[in-house]
Write a structure and sequence with these properties.
Layout lengths: L6 E4 L7 E7 L2 E7 L4 H30 L11 H29 L7 H27 L6 H22 L7 H14 L5 E3 L20 E5 L1 H6 L25
Parallel strand pairs: 1-3, 1-5
Antiparallel strand pairs: 2-3, 4-5
Helix pairs in contact: 1-2, 1-3, 2-3, 2-4, 3-4
The protein binds zinc ion.
The site of zinc ion has 7 residues, from loops.
Length: 255
C-alpha cells in the first residue's frame, strides 16, 4: 500500500494552538497541539451557543414588539417584511448556536445515569428552537390587525424556519459520557497513546494510521477520541479494533 504521499493533520479546535510542521516516514505531518482541557473547550462552545440563542430570541422579541406596535424601527419596511427579516435572523442565530452546542456535547457529554439531564442537554437546541419561534408564530396567527394574506406569509415562513432550526439543532447521534469513556478505553487497549486517525470523508475513526481504509486518502487527521467524537465520528473502524468483530457484524468503512 502506498503511504508516502499522505499528510497527517492533528485535529484541533482551539484557537490558541501551536503549529509545528515536521516530516516523518509517512509524509508531511502537521502537528497542532491542543491547549485547554476538553471541559474548558466544551464550556466556551456552550457559552457561544447560549449567546447565539439569546440573539435569536432577541430577534423574536423585536418581531413581537413590531407586531404589537410597541416599536417603530425601520418604518420604511412593511410589518410583513420586518417580521420575515426577524424570523430569518432568529433562525440563523439559533441554527449556528445549536451547532456549537452539539459539538460541546460530543466533547463533554452528559452521563446516561441522569436520564432527564441527558435528554435535556441533548435536546436543548430543539427546545430553544421551539422557544425562539412558536410564541411569535402563535401571536402572528392570533393577531387581529394583520390581514389574512400577510398572516399566512409570515406564519408559513415562521413554521419553515422553525422546522429547519429544529431539525438542524437535533443531535441524530447523541453521545453519553459512558459511551465516550468506553470508546477511549477500547482505543487504549489497542494503542496506549489513545490516538485515533480519520480522513476528512471518514465515517468512523481508526486506531491504525496504516489502516487499509486510508488507501485512497491523501490527508489523515490525528487526534484524540474526543476530537473524533467532536468531528461527528463516534464509531471505531472494526478492522482497527478487531475485538469488536465478535460483537458486531463486519462493516466496510465508507470512504
Ligand atoms: Zn481502520
Amino acid at each position: 500500500m502506498e503511504k508516502k504521499e499522505k499528510k497527517i493533520v492533528k485535529a484541533s479546535t482551539n484557537k490558541k494552538s501551536n503549529v509545528d510542521v515536521g516530516i516523518d516516514s509517512h509524509g508531511k505531518i502537521v502537528k497542532i497541539e491542543h491547549k485547554g482541557e476538553p471541559k474548558e473547550r466544551a464550556t466556551s462552545k456552550r457559552i457561544i451557543a447560549v449567546c447565539l440563542w439569546l440573539v435569536g430570541i432577541f430577534f423574536e422579541v423585536v418581531g413581537i414588539l413590531r407586531l404589537k406596535n410597541v416599536i417603530g424601527w425601520l418604518p420604511s419596511l412593511s410589518d410583513t417584511t420586518f417580521l420575515i427579516i426577524c424570523l430569518i435572523l432568529d433562525g440563523i442565530a439559533v441554527i449556528i448556536g445549536s451547532q456549537f452546542w452539539k459539538k460541546a456535547n460530543h466533547i463533554d457529554p452528559a452521563s446516561e445515569k441522569n436520564a432527564l439531564k441527558f435528554w435535556v442537554q441533548n435536546n436543548l437546541g430543539v427546545i430553544i428552537s421551539v422557544i425562539a419561534f412558536l410564541p411569535i408564530i402563535i401571536l402572528v396567527l392570533t393577531d387581529k390587525e394583520m390581514d389574512k394574506k400577510n398572516k399566512t406569509i409570515v406564519s408559513v415562513v415562521g413554521i419553515i424556519v422553525l422546522l429547519i432550526a429544529g431539525v438542524s439543532s437535533y443531535d441524530f447521534n447523541p453521545v453519553s459520557e459512558e459511551q465516550l469513556l468506553r470508546a477511549e478505553q477500547e482505543v487504549l487497549n489497542v494503542n496506549p497513546e489513545g490516538t485515533v486517525y480519520w480522513a476528512p470523508n471518514s465515517k468512523k475513526y481508526h486506531v491504525k494510521q496504516d489502516c487499509p481504509s486510508f488507501s485512497r486518502s491523501e490527508t489523515i487527521i490525528e487526534g484524540s477520541v474526543r476530537d473524533a467524537f467532536e468531528a461527528g465520528l463516534t464509531d471505531p473502524c472494526r478492522r482497527c479494533i478487531p475485538e469488536l468483530e465478535e460483537d458486531h457484524n463486519h462493516e466496510e468503512e465508507a470512504e
